[in-house]
UniProtKB/TrEMBL annotation:
PANTHER family: ALANINE--GLYOXYLATE AMINOTRANSFERASE, AMINOTRANSFERASE CLASS V. This is Tritium exchange subunit. It comes from Sporolactobacillus nakayamae. The modification N6-(pyridoxal phosphate)lysine is found at K198. Keywords: Aminotransferase, Pyridoxal phosphate, Transferase. Soluble hydrogenase catalyzes both production and consumption of hydrogen from suitable artificial electron donors or acceptors. This subunit catalyzes the tritium-exchange activity. The keyword Ribonucleoprotein does not apply. The lineage of its organism: Bacteria, Bacillati, Bacillota, Bacilli, Bacillales. InterPro entries: Aminotrans_V_dom, Aminotrans_V_PyrdxlP_BS, PyrdxlP-dep_Trfase, PyrdxlP-dep_Trfase_major, PyrdxlP-dep_Trfase_small, SP_NH2Trfase/AEP_transaminase. GO terms for biological process: glycine biosynthetic process, by transamination of glyoxylate. Its cofactor is pyridoxal 5'-phosphate.
Length: 389
């Protein structure tokens, strides 16, 4: 490729994701004091305008930290040493949740699901029954398993938990909040966490936590020692001062305000529909190229798609897209390392972006010796677009 085009880069990883110009501009605004009235106005604006995105009636708490810190906060604010917890493990990030809970001394019961498949309500119900009345403090689930491109049926799982236990339902929403509908009350979710660098179109550096009334009560009553990740501190400081207990990433929160503007301008329902369209366009194009997908259409995530190529190395496809087209996608993790590649399509992503990556895939497969299918995947994706728009 000519060096003329090397400064044009295209990011299709499932995080970080591209940053809109409006968000970059907001983050470049002059700094304000984080203990000033201006900041109080800013954080209240963001915390309340994010409520529909999280499906909560409470302001959303904002931490200056990573997605993993949000997962750890969800554990340390609810589970005491020796408590029993169920963790649904359907991929790398379910495994991470289990490891965090084990590190804090919880007795973890892992419900292991085949990677590439979702957890069904029946599987969860049978697993709960197999524990013979063991008192479960919390059930942890991953809404969207980033490592496999699977969207779990969170609403149905929440109904099972509510029916069969008194446990809290704590959900990792890191790679889908901002792209999928959620109603914490209807879905029986008590704590829902995410981070900034996925569907919320921000750089890494912020974590978000939303609660139900029951979740907030559990946080206030949890005896576990914690300091920076003490969510009670965040709630109390917000309620009393409209601030944060520790120094926040002010610029990122200014960017989050611009994200709220963009979501409201597009319309929240339209944001959800756009992500479904991006998923359907990409999957249709990949099917047309004969590349096996890791997940079924029923389980498929609207934010990340995992592809399991046959006869061609997934890492080689990943490298070729980067070298020839400046397109960055993700590889597999842990059990799937070297076996799949993953394409992120969340946040600041359009149907035209999907056509770009499919066109590059057509050329890359031809480069590796497959019979050329130039335009085939793009045509199929365009047909999906035409049916939906």
């Amino acid at each position: 490729m000519s060096s003329l085009f090397l400064d044009q880069t295209y990011l299709f990883t499932p995080g970080p994701t591209p940053i809109p110009n409006q968000v970059n501009a907001a983050m470049a605004r002059p700094m304000i004091g984080h203990r000033s009235p201006d900041f109080s106005v800013l954080i209240e604006d963001v915390a309340t305008r994010l409520q529909p995105v999280f499906g909560t009636k409470h302001p959303v708490m904002i931490l200056t930290s990573s997605g993993t810190s949000a997962l750890e906060a969800a554990v340390v604010n609810t589970v005491h040493e020796g408590d029993h917890a169920i963790v649904i493990v359907a991929g790398s990030f379910g495994d991470r949740l289990a490891s965090i809970a084990e590190n804090y001394g919880a007795t973890v019961h892992r419900l292991n699901i085949e990677w590439g498949k979702s957890c069904s309500p029946e599987q969860l119900e049978n697993f709960i029954d197999s524990l013979n009345g063991t008192p479960i403090k919390a059930v942890f689930g991953t809404f969207n398993e980033t490592s496999t491109g699977v969207l779990n049926p969170i609403h149905a799982l929440g109904q099972v938990i509510k029916k069969r236990t008194d446990a809290l339902f704590i959900v990792d929403g890191v790679s889908c909040i901002g792209a999928v509908p959620v109603d914490m009350e209807e879905d029986k979710i008590d704590i829902l966490v995410t981070s900034s660098q996925k569907a919320l179109m921000l750089p890494p550096g912020l974590a978000f936590a939303a609660f139900s009334d029951r979740g907030l009560k559990a946080i206030r009553e949890c005896p576990e020692k914690r300091f920076y990740l003490d969510l009670k501190r965040y709630v109390d400081t917000y309620e009393k001062q409209k601030s944060t207990p520790f120094t926040p990433a002010v610029s990122l929160i200014q960017g989050a305000q611009a994200v709220c503007d963009m979501i409201e301008e597009e319309g929240w329902e339209n944001v959800i529909k756009r992500h479904l369209l991006l998923r359907d366009m990409l999957r249709a194009g990949i099917h047309e190229l004969g590349l096996p997908l890791l997940t079924t259409d029923e389980d498929a995530s609207p934010t990340v798609t995992a592809v399991q190529p046959e006869g061609i190395s997934a890492p080689e496809i990943q490298k070729a897209l980067k070298k020839d087209f400046s397109i960055t996608i993700a590889g597999g993790q842990k059990d799937l390392k070297g076996k799949i590649f993953r394409i992120g399509h969340m946040g600041y992503c359009t149907p035209f972006d999907i056509l770009k990556v499919l066109s590059a895939l057509e050329l890359t497969l031809a480069k590796f010796g497959q019979a050329p299918r130039f335009g085939a995947a793009v045509k199929k994706a365009e047909e999906v677009y035409a049916q939906h728009v």
